[in-house]
């Protein structure tokens, strides 16, 4: 990630994604998390945008929908408005460029209620329409999500038609669903509802963008309304959740689904575990040698803490060699 002090005017973050195997390192802490809804460290609009884009990048790379290497820039809000740029731009060699505009699909009243609820304790319920607080009936939860997604698309399409994103040859729209009905909604019903809406009234608004993507919980939908629509659970991807990815790989191994394993990355992780043991051994050997030299050449400063450090380092070394005998030096064969 490029440091802020090195950035060009109007660019707040710049990433260079080199390849699939280096994606976790290339993304680093970009968009890893957002702040709380309330308080002095509450989340910012930039944090929300970065969080959403990170998940889309993980999905695009996993689905092999993004050409690498690619540079990704996040623009300052004021700069983007003045120069007709979306929230992010992707660029490749040959001056190819693609914009990505990020927006949340959810009502303002729902977000305001969530902010207030963060300050409360115990069970609380959003009153909803007409003051009802008895949950959802039928497909009401799905209707909330479809409605919020529709409104978000229409809002951004209106800006696109006014030339708001004309600073790039083409622009994608990324919807981050934070709808009231999101937690309770059946995703398949939501998708059916959105497809019906597209055929009925939403087609021209969708046409303002090259593709529309949707982040719905841990699921990212790529090209939501297109022929190449695909979805992926990013919580199971290495670059997004290392622990979740390990769990998914372990599950595939137990079930004998060897063809589905991420074999290349799994091999890299196993190799890195070996290197971490080597680094640990090197550290303990250096620690031991340092204290032995001090013990030999500074006899007047002998102390229990020095002796304890020497014994501790020896114990750590013995434990590492017992657990990983291959760390022992091997004599060359004659």
Could you walk me through the main structural features you see in this protein, from its secondary elements to its overall organization?
The protein has 9 helices and 8 strands. With about 325 residues, the protein is of the alpha+beta class. Helix 5 runs parallel beside helix 6 and helix 8 packs antiparallel against helix 9. The N terminus is likely disordered. It has 2 domains: about 250 residues, no CATH class; about 70 residues.
Short description:
The protein has 334 residues and is α+β, with helices and mostly antiparallel strands. The protein is built from nine helices and eight strands.
Low-pLDDT runs? 1-7, 120-137
Q: Order of strands across the biggest sheet?
A: 1-2-3-4-5-6-7-8
What gross morphology would you assign? elongated
Question: Overall mean pLDDT score?
Answer: 80
Instruction: Please give the radius of gyration in angstroms.
Output: 26 Å
Distance between the terminal alpha carbons, to the nearest Å? 49 Å
Helicity, in percent?
A: 40-55%
Main β-sheet description: 8 strands, mixed
Strand content: 5-15%
Number of strands: 8
- Tally of alpha and pi helices: 9
């Amino acid at each position: 990630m490029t440091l802020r002090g090195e950035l060009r005017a109007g660019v707040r973050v710049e990433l260079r994604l080199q390849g699939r195997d280096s994606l976790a390192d290339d993304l680093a802490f970009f968009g890893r998390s957002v702040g709380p809804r309330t308080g002095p460290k509450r989340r910012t609009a930039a944090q929300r945008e970065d969080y959403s884009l990170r998940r889309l990048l993980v999905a695009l790379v996993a689905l092999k929908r993004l050409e690498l290497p690619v540079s990704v820039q996040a623009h300052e809000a004021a700069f983007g408005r003045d120069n007709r740029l979306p929230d992010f731009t992707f660029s490749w060699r040959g001056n190819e460029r693609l914009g990505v505009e990020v927006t949340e699909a959810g009502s303002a009243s729902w977000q305001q209620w969530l902010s207030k609820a963060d300050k409360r304790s115990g069970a609380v319920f959003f009153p909803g329409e007409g003051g009802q607080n008895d949950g959802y009936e039928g497909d009401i939860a799905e209707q909330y999500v479809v409605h919020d997604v529709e409104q978000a698309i229409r809002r951004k399409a209106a800006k696109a038609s006014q030339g708001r994103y004309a600073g790039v040859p083409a622009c994608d729209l990324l919807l981050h669903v934070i709808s009231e009905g999101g937690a309770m909604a059946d995703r398949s019903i939501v998708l059916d509802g959105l497809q019906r809406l597209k055929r009925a009234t939403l087609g021209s608004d969708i046409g303002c963008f090259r593709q529309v993507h949707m982040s719905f919980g841990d699921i990212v939908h790529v090209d939501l309304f297109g022929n190449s629509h695909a979805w992926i659970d990013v919580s199971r991807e290495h670059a997004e959740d290392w622990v979740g990815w390990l769990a998914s790989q372990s599950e595939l191994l137990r079930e004998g689904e060897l063809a589905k394993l991420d074999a290349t990355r799994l091999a890299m992780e196993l190799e890195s575990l070996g290197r971490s043991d080597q680094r640990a051994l090197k550290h303990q050997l250096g620690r031991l040698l340092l204290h032995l030299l001090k013990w030999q050449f500074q006899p007047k400063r002998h102390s229990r803490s020095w002796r304890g450090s020497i014994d501790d380092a020896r114990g750590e070394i013995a434990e590492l060699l017992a657990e990983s005998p291959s760390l022992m030096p091997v004599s060359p064969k004659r």
